[in-house]
Write a structure and sequence with these properties.
By secondary structure, this protein is an alpha+beta fold. It has 20 helices and 31 strands. A hairpin with a 2-residue loop joins strand 28 and strand 29.
């Protein structure tokens, strides 16, 4: 089967007339629309004339409205939510909307929240595009109104719109958007749109309603095209044996057994591994496993082990002479701490963790015979990074890269690195073999050569005044650096302040007058990456669990302490109070206990409560219920926000209880899901999610609940057993040992 998707690097520019918009965007008439991959209703009429009003919208004479979607679809719903925002202000008839993946043109389709990169990450698609998309939709609507006013010779002020129709109430006349497209005159300059001209939330017809996601039907019937499904004429398959340690390179290669396997076409060296080309994927995998390779020991990661790293990070966290980069600095925490009447401190630990996305990495590349252009088929979280990495690998300009973007079977941060190594592999192997090449990673490849959330050791200290008020807070975060490895460009831009590793260490919502969060970032040579929840997962685990220790020290209820600290945040208080009400916080459970956590995740307000039990003999934790309240500001698709919150909780459950990567001599010790266990259906708690939207700017929902889970569970375990679990994941052996240690101390 051949999978064809719209090329995203260019639009066919036939006859056209350009004009410049207020934001510097190009408008035009007569540009043809690329083939549509998804549709909200009927297919486009083949004989319809298309009028492109701006680079985001094309209106056909049959009334179809095509809207570009700039974000990668990886299960989070952006393919629906972003066009929906534009359609709302355009007052489009959603049943006539068709969605087109946008080409990788950063100047037009880049996310303002990522400095113009086309990059889908951090639950920042709706946040970054919300206002620009509303303005683009409003501009198109105003152009439609102007054209109708001229046709009817009436003032624009007398006109209004209904979904897909311009209406003149005084005369009862109506013009469909398709009718207007037949005679539309697009002005030379895009009309200015002020905030006052945008709809009030009370006027929304689409936003805030449960509009079904457009790609779900194809997922249900099995026709949804994923990157791993892509087929290209003449394509061969490649599997790569990569150095087990970052920085290693092949030294001696014995490929005799690999070459004897039927279907093997060639064995090629790469700077960091050995590739096998074959006519079928399983032949390539078999041959890869038959290779015998010794490796050079370049790079810093050789000799790295989890135990040694934890010990070294702990020493750094405890060393007052070693200062780190300031992530948050408010007031004077050291001075306030020295004057505190009561102080307490604790250390928290988090293991390395793997993305475990359902679809392993893959990419197809077809380099031209001359080597000066390439066409790529892949799923990526950043169209910009994929195209730039391919161009750099070939030494060509990005205009010579034709990019076909396909849906991802999960990303979680794994498919958003500046070097996009799986894309580059396909490009280099296609160039070397003079044919299209599909690179496939097995699950074992993906685990062994993954890029991981770093290891964390965190030391927290709190100071209370004579009244018991929390007046000083000092948080030291020691972990492997992430941004320097994942995205050196942004690392340089942020001047060494690692926003992926340290995110969450800020406490902007809590009323603590003196706060210092500092990061000590270790260059261990380990491959690191953002992972769902980024640094917010480890940092909020430590913060929210430690706050329960503060509450115990003061002798106050943990929820009451959060409400006290949130006295200046009505939204924060609202989600906390509602979560406590939903879970019946004050009621005791037989053999179970509740634990609480609150998070302000870049403005999204969440509270979570876990109900747990503990098997005393084994140490196994079971989560029976999880209550969660979430205020993400304006909720574009409420049902999808709830679904994403449930998904986030599942991710958080695995990271809290079972998922960890360990290293020995620089090598990953895990291989597959048998020794990297992820949550199963039998592990799922009953989830109770309450969406509490407000009229605030959308702040994201895709990963916001993941960091809630671990501290809520840890706090519940303490309330049940009297034992603090300060490690993630909370493995049964760790819990059992902590209970034994507590029993020994009491004895």
């Amino acid at each position: 089967m051949t999978t064809r998707t719209a090329a995203r690097n260019s639009l066919d520019q036939g006859r056209r007339r350009f004009m410049t918009g207020a934001a510097g965007f190009t408008f035009g008439v007569g540009l043809s629309v690329p083939a549509l991959q998804f549709a909200a209703g009927e297919a486009l009429a083949a004989d319809a004339k298309n009028t492109v009003v701006n680079p985001w919208v094309s209106i056909s004479t049959d009334g179809t409205v095509a809207i570009m979607s700039p974000a990668s679809e990886m299960g989070q719903g952006s393919l629906t939510s972003l066009p929906l925002i534009l359609a709302e202000e355009l007052d489009a008839d959603w049943s006539r909307v068709r969605i087109v993946p946008a080409p990788p043109i950063e100047k037009i389709y880049g996310n303002p929240g990522f400095n113009g990169l086309m990059y889908t990450a951090g639950s920042f698609s709706v946040n970054g595009y919300f206002t620009p998309l509303r303005k683009f939709g409003a501009q198109v609507r105003l152009v439609l109104l102007d054209n109708a006013a001229r046709r009817w010779n009436v003032p624009v002020s007398e006109l209004a719109t209904e979904p897909g129709v311009v209406v003149h109430a005084a005369s009862g006349r109506r013009l469909g958007y398709g009718e207007i497209a037949a005679f539309m005159d697009v002005p030379a300059v895009a009309p200015e749109i002020t905030p006052e001209q945008l709809k009030k939330t009370s006027q929304f017809r689409l936003i805030g309603k449960d509009v079904p996601r457009v790609e779900v039907p194809t997922k249900v019937n099995g026709t949804a095209p994923y990157s791993i499904d892509a087929q290209v004429k003449g394509m061969v398959y490649a599997a790569v044996l990569r150095s087990p340690v970052e920085g290693g390179a092949p030294d001696k290669v014995d490929d005799k057994a690999a070459r004897r396997i039927d279907g093997v076409l060639d064995v090629l060296r790469l700077p960091y591994g050995v590739a096998v080309l074959a006519t079928e994927p399983w032949q390539a995998f078999q041959a890869k496993n038959a290779l015998r390779v010794s490796w050079t020991s370049g790079g810093k990661a050789w000799g790295h082990s989890t135990g040694k790293a934890r010990a070294a990070f702990t020493v750094a966290a405890r060393d007052p002479a070693r200062s780190g980069v300031s992530w948050e600095k408010v007031g004077n925490a050291p001075e306030a701490m020295s004057q505190a009447q009561v102080s307490l401190e604790a250390e928290y630990f988090c293991d390395y963790a793997y993305h475990a996305q359902m679809e392993p990495l893959n990419s197809v590349a077809a380099v031209s015979p001359s080597g000066d252009s390439v066409e790529i088929w892949c799923g990526t979280q950043s169209q910009s990074m994929a195209v730039n990495a391919a161009a750099e690998a070939l030494g060509i300009t990005v205009e010579r890269v034709k990019f076909n973007d396909i849906m991802l079977g999960g990303g979680f941060g794994r498919r958003g690195h500046r070097d996009e190594e799986f894309v580059v592999e396909s490009v280099l192997l296609s160039k070397a073999s003079k044919r299209p090449v599909k690179v496939l990673w097995t699950r074992e490849d993906d685990v062994r050569n993954g890029r991981f959330r770093p290891l964390y050791v965190q030391r927290l200290k709190a100071g209370l005044d004579a009244s018991g008020r929390l007046v000083a807070w000092h948080h030291r975060v020691v972990c492997d650096q992430v941004l320097a490895f994942q995205d050196p460009v942004r690392y340089k831009m942020f001047k060494g302040n690692d926003g992926i590793a340290l995110r969450g260490g800020e406490l902007k919502t809590y009323d603590i007058p003196n706060r210092l969060c500092e990061g000590l970032l270790e260059d261990t040579g380990i491959r690191t990456s953002s992972l769902r929840g980024i640094g917010v997962g480890p940092t909020k685990f430590a913060i929210e669990a430690f706050l329960d220790e503060v509450a115990e020290k003061r002798g106050v209820d943990p929820v009451a302490l959060r409400l006290e600290l949130l006295k200046n945040s009505p939204r924060g208080k609202a989600v906390v109070e509602e979560a406590a009400k939903m879970a019946d916080w004050g009621r005791k459970r037989d053999g179970r206990a509740l634990g609480f956590a609150y998070i302000d995740y870049t403005g999204t307000q969440l509270a979570g409560i876990a109900e747990v039990s503990v098997e005393r003999d084994s140490g196994r934790i079971r989560v029976h219920h999880f209550w969660c309240t979430i205020d993400p500001g304006i909720a574009i698709q409420p049902d999808n926000v709830v679904a994403q919150t449930e998904s986030s909780i599942v991710s958080g459950l695995g990271l809290a209880l079972t998922e960890r990567i360990t290293f020995a001599n620089g090598e990953v010790q895990q291989k597959n899901f048998d020794d990297y266990p992820v949550p199963r259906m039998r592990d799922m708690p009953e989830m109770h999610i309450k969406l509490m939207p407000t009229d605030n700017h959308p702040t994201g929902a895709g990963q916001m609940a993941t960091p809630l889970v671990a501290p809520a569970i840890a706090n519940a375990v303490y309330r049940l057993t009297g034992v603090r679990i300060r490690e993630n994941p909370m493995l049964p052996e760790r819990v059992r040992q902590a209970m034994l240690d507590a029993h020994t101390r009491l004895a």
